[in-house]
Amino acid sequence: MHSESSSGLDRLFSRKSRIFIVFALLFALTLLIRMSFVGLLPIWREDAFHYLDKAEEILDGDFSLKSQDIGLPLFYAFFLKILGSGDLLSDLPIAQVLLALVEALLLIPLVLIARRFFGWKAALLAGLLFTFWPELIYWTTQGYSEGLFMLFLLLAFLFLIQERRWRVGSLLAAACVGLAYYVRVNGLFFLPVILAYMFLVRKERAGWNGRWLLYMVLIFVLVVSPYFVLRATLYDSPLHYSMAAKFLFLDNDQQLFDPAFNPTLSSYLASHTLGDITARAWRGLSTVIRDTYELSPFLLTLAFLGLLLFRRRKETGFHLVFLFWFLGLFWIYGAVRNSRFVLPLIPLAIILAAAVAVRLFEGKKKELLWLGCVLLGFVFLTSGDFLRMRSGMRWEGRVWKDARVWGQWIRDNIPVGSVLAIREGIDIADFMAPDVELVTIPNREEADEILDYFRDEKVNYVGLGTGGLEIEDWNRIPALREIRKRPRWPFITRVYANQDIKWAMEIYRMDWTKRGKESERGDGDVVEAESLDRSGLSLKDEQASAGFAVVMSPGGDSSFLLGPLVAVPEGRYRITMRMKVEAPEDTDWQIGYSVFIQRLERILHKDVLQKDIFSSGRYIEIEAEVDLDARRDLHFRFNVPSTVRLSIDRLTFSRIPAR
Questions:
Q1: Spatial separation of the C-alpha atoms in residues 425 and 497, rounded to whole Å
Q2: Phi-psi sector, 582: left (phi>0), alpha (psi -120 to 50), beta
């Protein structure tokens, strides 16, 4: 009896059992840490809300999604069908717990991959590093798709490196890459990884045949084909990428949200030189490598060292992942950078870093003590980030929750079917007032261009706010300052303002029936300037231009009348005046101008220019069409603030042929 008991204890505490217990405890710790972050941030924000909202729509039979990231909504929908109530607010905790569980599950393939290449010591160290990495905790517990995306990629890598059943493993790897593509379109970067690995590592194995590459591609296509069919049905093309396609041709991240920006390869090549393209490529490659390194310099130094140390054929997969990921991202990073794009590299970087640490101290006295020091060093270096992240998330959560105040006002006061234009906070407005149609605010140089867009989109209301954790809307899009101040537009009325919350918001109502009835601004004191020097003017039938150096730098906000400017033969002209504006930093400014014939006889053209600091020092052109004859002189009048220096340096006349 005693012998049987001892035998049972021996089996319980065998080496494999001890390993299992250790990693079970590690998984529990990983899950506990992730669960502690659940609820710090509301999920009704940005992409997090987008995914959950789409899941609810899928449950209602609506699979349309232009942004090419339906994987996480499908994952949500499957579990919400079983566990959910159908109410978005009630289902929020379920979604957050699901993501915490998915992120904890990443530990399993990560440990198995590390053990397969580098042994149990490296696997344990890699698991511990993974458990405490702040960036992974943030992005994979707060409603984003990174956790599910990385799970499919790690499973693909794990299946790929199987030795005994490498044929089945290769097909399962291709299937996992297909599932990753559902979650994020850059899952496509992993397809050449698994194909190259099969060709480089498996080609000398018995039973190898080049057709296996074709089989893997076919499995990938088979997995993603339902989505291709769906997109072809909804958008007339299986390769309709919508916003994702803009990443290839944009020059800055603001163009991503500009509805008028719809680039093509031909238009991009026509507007960019070979030097521009080369500079973008080099800038992108250096930036993506630097961004990856800066996620954690301590561990990424070890990881890059691992790429140099571990060069056996079976370890080629690590090199291929980094190579194709950088090649896939460098062009996009030339215009837009985001640490989310390189985050999928981190699990493999953790494995490499752990393996290097084990290699450095292998065989030395007190090896485990040294490895413990590596772990403690990492925890020490990241503890500040960890605490700041948690504190920052609490603050961010309060900001987002405050935003529900103006979200509720939108729901209660803006009529159903109205169109609201809003930039930051569009997700909150969608969450709180789903019956109000929403459009984003485009980035335009001039306020009139934005207003024209609003009119074309039948916008009834405009929301301008402090942007939550982002910059203010009027600093992101400076032309909004003029709309916010409403200097000359009686059709804009402020109907809501709340400056007492962390995310302040102002909402304006637009009455387009009143547009075109703008009142004139006060002219102030009229001061006549001396006649301009005409010596440089050479008038021809078609065009005449002159270089002037007229500088207006008044001591107060007053008007200037420039004239008599020039007498010209009778006819209709298109005039263009080129001006340089210089203004102090951190100041708003605006210039009102009018074009006259014979003083105040008739106003031909009027407008208001308003720029921000970034326009200081740039040239601005004013255009107007006027009828002139030998008896009339042309005059310009400007309303120039005392803080602005305005230089007029070029004037062009183009005669318009008589019809």
A1: 15
A2: beta
Distance of CA 147 to the CA centre of its chain: 18
In angstroms, what CA-CA distances link 387 with 210, 360, 373, 383, 512? 51, 30, 21, 6, 50
Q: How far is CA 624 from the centre of its chain?
A: 39
- Cα–Cα dist 617/249, whole Å: 28
pLDDT digits (tens, 9 = 90+) for 481-519: 878 776 456 788 888 888 777 788 889 999 888 776 443
Distance CA 281, CA 267 (A): 18
Who contacts 377 (Cβ-Cβ below 8 Å, separation ≥6)? 298
Q: Which domains are present in the chain?
A: 2-396 (no CATH), 403-514 (3.40.190), 526-656 (2.60.120.40)
If DSSP codes are grouped into helix, strand and coil, which group holds residue 626? Answer: strand
Q: CB under 8 Å to 46, separation ≥6 — which residues?
A: 427
Which helix (H) or strand (E) segment is 86 a member of? none
pLDDT per residue over 265-300, tens digit each? 788 788 888 888 898 889 889 988 988 888 878 788
Give CA–CA dist 349/192, Å, rounded.
19
Residue 507 in tokens: 């909402």
Query: Nearest Cα to 312, choosing from 164, 200, 153?
Result: 200
Average pLDDT score over the chain: 75
- The owner of tokens 């939108």 is 410
Q: Nearest CA to 512 among 494, 495, 491, 484?
A: 491
- Taking the C-alpha atoms of residue 118 and residue 34, their distance in angstroms, rounded to an integer, is 27
Closest CA to 47 of 405, 338, 289: 338
**Longest distance between any two alpha carbons in the chain, whole Å:** 126
Burial classification of residue 33, based on how many CB atoms lie within 10 Å of its CB (0-12 exposed, 13-18 middle, 19 or more buried): middle
Structural tokens at position 111: 């440990």
Closest CA to 157 of 365, 318, 374: 318
